[in-house]
Design goal:
The chain is mostly helical. The protein has twelve helices and no strands. Helix 9 (about 190-205) packs antiparallel against helix 10 and helix 10 (about 210-235) packs antiparallel against helix 11 (about 240-260).
Length: about 290
């Protein structure tokens, strides 16, 4: 039963992500507002020009950057709210306890082995192996010296941020499995956070120079794998339900921040800053001769 629940939840999350990504790519990136923006850039005040440029889907400093920063802010808010709720809300504690008891009551040896296999996708050896394989494939397909840098920043940075939050909240793990107590603080789930950030990073790498419908499928796969890992942590009784929700939010938020810093599919650190300078120069127009 727990494995069926994991499959249902992760598949549903993947389908929702696929529909959302497909719709966003089709409606927001399926057009070219940059041309109209360039034609009108001198007809508007600097404030209006700034707003339009931040909603332009065709530039590195535009819509993608705006959405990434909004996602980062939303994720940070979710983690903060959950961190307060786990200490002060009895309802959340009851939900967490009910999920843990259900997992313990419906588990078995075979189920445990399957869940361990799923959770290992976001373990340190699993991340290194998968990252090296996919990174090598993507380097051969679309070479970029930034691929290993991006993957290291996403995974190592996520681990650092997650551990800082863990130590700050210092929440105890479920007591159903005695081994869980030896794994350190519970909130947020490190495996969930790693899975969210890592698989999203792989989807971004694999999405370079691919059509929108393939990008949407890659986003769905990334979400599905991350949610599957998160479910496995609850069903193994090593994390509370709220731990993995916070872990997913933190991982996706950190990924969004990294994607913004690397210019998304441009995959170059500082690309948005460089593009902003180019856009600013273009909006000012050619320099006028002195005395003209």
């Amino acid at each position: 039963m727990p494995v069926i629940v994991l499959l249902l939840v992760s598949t549903t999350a993947a389908l929702v992500a696929w529909r959302g990504a497909a719709a966003a790519l089709r409606t927001l990136w399926g057009r070219a507002p940059g041309t109209a923006l360039a034609a009108e850039v001198r007809e508007h005040t600097p404030a209006r020009r700034l707003v339009r440029s931040r909603l332009d889907a065709e530039v590195a400093t535009g819509l993608a950057l705006t959405l990434a920063l909004a996602a980062t802010a939303l994720a940070g808010t979710m983690v903060g709210v959950l961190a307060l709720a786990v200490r002060q809300t009895d309802t959340l504690a009851r939900i967490d306890s009910a999920a843990a008891r259900w997992a313990q009551a419906n588990g078995g040896e075979t189920t445990h082995r399957i869940l361990e296999g799923v959770t290992s996708l976001a373990s340190t050896p699993g991340v290194i192996l998968i990252g090296c394989v996919i990174g090598a494939i993507e380097w051969a397909r679309v070479p970029s010296r930034w691929i290993p840098v991006f993957l290291v920043v996403v995974t190592v940075g996520d681990s650092i941020v997650t551990n800082l939050v863990k130590n700050g909240v210092d929440r105890a793990r479920p007591t159903i499995d005695p081994l869980a107590a030896t794994l350190g603080p519970s909130f947020p789930s490190g495996h969930s956070s790693t899975a969210a950030a890592f698989f999203a990073a792989l989807a971004l790498l694999a999405g370079r120079r691919r059509p929108h419908h393939q990008k949407a499928v890659l986003a769905a796969l990334a979400v599905g794998f991350a949610v599957a890992v998160a479910c496995s942590r609850v069903l193994l009784d090593v994390h509370w339900l709220s731990d993995v929700i916070a872990g997913l939010a933190l991982g996706w938020g950190w990924f969004a921040l990294c994607a913004a810093a690397f210019g998304g599919w441009m995959l170059r650190l500082g690309a948005p800053v460089e593009q902003a300078q180019v856009d600013a120069s273009a909006s000012r127009g050619p320099a006028q001769p002195v005395g003209s």
